[in-house]
Amino acid sequence: MNKHIKTSLLLMLGLVSCKVGFAQKNDLSSVSKKIVSANKGDIVLLEDFLKTDFPKLPYTKTVLPGPQYIISDDPEYIRVPEAIALQETVDPGAVRLYVYNVNGVKEPQKMPRKISAVIKNLGHENMHFRMLKYASQKPSSNYFEIGKKGLEDYFLSAVNNQVKVLKPGEVMAIDEKLEKQLVQYDELVHGFYEFVVDQPAQIAVIQFAPDESGPKVFPRIKTLIPHSHANAGRGIFPISNYQINPTDTLDTKKGAVQLIVADGQDDPWITGTIGAKKEFAKNAGNYGVLYKTKIKWKSTDGKGLALVSWNSRSGDNQWCGGMGLTMELVGKDGQKTVMQYPKNALITKGYPEAILIETYWPDPKKEIQEIEFTYSPPGASCLPTPLIFVPIDPKK
User: Is 82 within a domain?
Assistant: First the structure.
């Protein structure tokens, strides 16, 4: 995540220009035809339409009850052969853990490593550990693929009610898959977990030799890599879930509008602490945070709505050349659908490409309609990824 976060900061300072397509003809009829003829998840070419300055949909943002949240992405590239990349203490209760680390060892030479997450019971009684959500990908240098698949697996996760018991002082691997997988140089380890513990616990992300195991090697590792406030960051955060509620009812007759979250400006980065000294931490990207969104809309001109997104950062630099995301949509019947976007390609590159996420048609029996989905900032992609609502003509 480090490269595009740097670009975000430069953009805020006005040091990087953003080259994008701007609407010249703004022919909504032509745009509508292209969108209506496409399938959900398709890339649609919207020349002379996509732009960065669509009117913003104003909203209120409420913190929802959620787990203690830990992210491990500082350092992103672990350069030390045997070291601790993150170490935090959690209270009894629910925990969300996002592991985003790369084997970056080059000295004395490139070498395979293991990267694993472990948990230690700090309490005086047995600790009961129960996994709630589990997503673990095979290490890979294809960061976009891992980021999309990881979030899809998290949304779809259905973990059996298995409880593991740790004695006081005992250390256990959080994810047994990580204990078995070798990580080659420049490969990303990506894990997204949610679990519950009933004793205070210490959580660590460690890198070590292939012939070792995390629980055995952790007590002897003395090197805790200093944080640098780079990349997305690391630490423990009190916020993990937001509820987004637009303050206005969206009306199709008013044209296209965009919902912008996770931009670091209108929607600031969450803050927390790092380590035992409780030093300042921020999640520059709000990666791993879930945005539960409900939007009210109406069609006073008989049109429907299309929800699209695009890589609005593609012109910034070489690190922003691709974007892919995964979302959970809620249908009219309450059924949830999870999909990777784009569907038939790894990423969308940039203007004039847009991804069709969903189309919505007005119910003649209802004046006010509702759109509901859960969004989380996509790993490996530059932010923000605008969510644009485009009026479309009815199907013929």
Answer: yes
With H, G, I as helix, E, B as strand and everything else as coil, classify residue 380.
coil
**CB count, 10 Å around CB of 99?**
26
In the Cβ-directed half-sphere of 191, how many Cα atoms lie within 13 Å?
Answer: 27
**Identity (one letter) of the amino acid at 238?**
P
Q: Which amino acid is at 218?
A: F
Residue 70 lies in a domain: no
- Please answer whether residues 98 and 288 qualify as being in contact, where contact means their C-beta atoms are separated by less than 8 angstroms: yes
Is 257 part of a structural domain of the chain?
Answer: yes
Task: Measure the CA–CA gap between 47 and 20, rounded to whole angstroms.
Answer: 11
Could you tell me which of 102, 109, 152 has the C-alpha nearest to residue 2? 102
Q: Residues 261, 262, 263, CA angle at the centre, nearest 5°?
A: 95
Same domain, 51 and 91: no
Residue 199 in tokens: 């004793």
With beta carbons less than 8 A apart as the criterion, state whether 200 and 41 touch: no
Residues 325 and 222 in one domain: no
pLDDT confidence of residue 27: 63
Each residue's pLDDT tens digit, 144-198: 999 999 999 999 998 887 899 999 999 999 999 999 999 999 999 999 999 999 9
Q: What is the pLDDT of residue 14?
A: 34
State the pTM of this model: 0.92
Q: Rounded distance, CA 167 to CA 174, Å?
A: 15
Instruction: Output the DSSP codes for 73-91.
Output: ESSSEE-SSSEEEEEEEE-
What are the DSSP calls for 131-196, one per residue?
EEEEEE---BS-HHHHHHHHHHHHHH------EEEE-TT-EEES-HHHHH--B-TTPEEEEEEEEE
The CA distance from 210 to 206, in Å, is 12
